[in-house]
Amino acid sequence: MNNLDSIAEQIRKSLSVKDEAREKMLPLCRDSIRNSSNAIRAVHRQEFKQAAELLQKAQSLITDAEKAVAGTRELASTGLIRDAHKEFAEATITLALVNGEPLPEPKKLGVDVAAYLNGLGEAVGELRRYLLDSMRRGDLSRGEELLGIMDDIYSTLVTMDYPDAITSGLRRTTDMVRGVLERTRSDLTLTIRQQELEKKLVNLPGSVPASIEEAMSEENAPESQQEGPVLDSNQMDVYDALVEWRQKKATEENLTTNIIARNSMLKEIININPSNIRELMEVKGFGERRANKYGRDIIKILKKRF
Q: Chain-wide mean pLDDT for the chain?
């Protein structure tokens, strides 16, 4: 027992070194994850140059974190470093796929294969978000392409049939990808069919539903024809509230905003200030169908604002 104090002192020194390395590594990993997350947001805003710059910062921070724990085997494979690898891989893969570029390889990114595969799976969710945003803007030009990429990723992930201890829970990520893929396939198919139907209806003279015909005429009309009644400052506050409600409804129902209600309709509604659905029907072009479907929401907004 004469050497116990000496052994304890050696252990303290070893633990102190590990603790110091851990304290250096933690903020570097967190900053890397934050930069990767911000890069993904930049991709969705189509700010690709900024996304690339953020990813360079994220990769540099990961490198610094790995250097900080290079001498401690336990910390070199800690969960936070794996998370930083996964987030960085996800963001880099998302940027590459959205830009139509080849996938970056794990070795080039400097991440382990398990983090890469999980990042690849998470990127499918970001592709769905990017695709839905494009669909809301009426842009289906890359719909089939991005859906095909998502399908290819899923087909690859299901072949990685290894224990979760090796793949860091890849089976759970793969199950998530399958659900995202099926929902996206359904959403895209429905939107394409709806668009095709609208085109066919437009080509049938006299048989176009009022909602579609009005929306098209609104989009093609000169700005002066879309303005409607002039509103004062108080009425403009109500108009902004109705526009916000219309955008939310359009997103929920996967429609263009003009199909729900044109700008001129909203202004006419504010000008008339109906107190019930019957009065709302008197707004030119609004019609019984819209009044019955959206009337309660609109009247509720009017009563709250006026």
A: 84
Q: What is residue 228's DSSP assignment?
A: -
Cβ 302 vs Cβ 273: under 8 Å? yes
Residues 111 and 248 in one domain: no
Rg (CA), the chain: 28
Q: Say which amino acid occupies 72.
A: T
What predicted TM-score, i.e. pTM, was given to this entire model? 0.64
**Residue 159 and residue 161: Cα distance in Å, rounded?**
6
Q: How many CB atoms lie within 10 A of CB 197?
A: 11
Gap between the terminal Cα atoms of the chain: 86
Q: Give yes or no for a contact between 98 and 43, defined as CB atoms under 8 angstroms apart.
A: yes
Give yes or no: residues 123 and 231 share one domain: no
- Range from 49-58, 175-184, 257-266 carrying the lowest mean pLDDT: 257-266
Among left, alpha and beta (phi > 0; psi -120 to 50; other), residue 256 is beta
Distance CA(193)–CA(198), nearest Å, equals: 9
Rounded CA-CA distance 154/281 in Å is 49
**101 and 76 inside one domain:** yes
Tokens of 148: 């095909």
Cβ atoms of residues 114 and 167 within 8 Å:
yes
Distance CA(160)–CA(138), nearest Å, equals 36
* Tokens representing residue 205 in the block: 């003279």
For 243, the domain range is: 210-305
Question: 170 and 154 in contact (C-beta within 8 Å)?
Answer: no
3 within a domain of the structure (yes/no): no
